[in-house]
Amino acid sequence: MHTVRPAAVDERLQSGDDPFVLDIRPTASYQRAAIDGSHNIPVYSDLQRGNDDVFRDQLGEIPQDRDVVVVCKMGVVAKRATRILREEGYEAATLLGGMSGWSGYRNGSISYKLRSLLWTLR
After folding, report:
1. Is pTM beyond 0.85 here?
2. What domains are defined for the chain?
């Protein structure tokens, strides 16, 4: 599976190498906390239930000429969206840990540091 760590996404965003950050969480969650410059297509619940069609119907909103980083709550459902995007020819990866991982990275939390260490050991 294609994944990317929060630190790598942050580095790309800071350097101007802007991936298209696609947040699939429900609108209310996205409005509470989101990665700056991200785009919300709220298909989390549909994908979680196995309904890919709603997401596939919205692929036209996602540019094909940019790398796509898919974000959900913890990164689990985003893997499904990433798989669909890759099947459709997009360069896509799932943000490891989802928004939870992003928040932990930005806050320097101990839990994020432990998760990051585990990712390194894989």
Report:
1. yes
2. 3-121 (3.40.250.10)
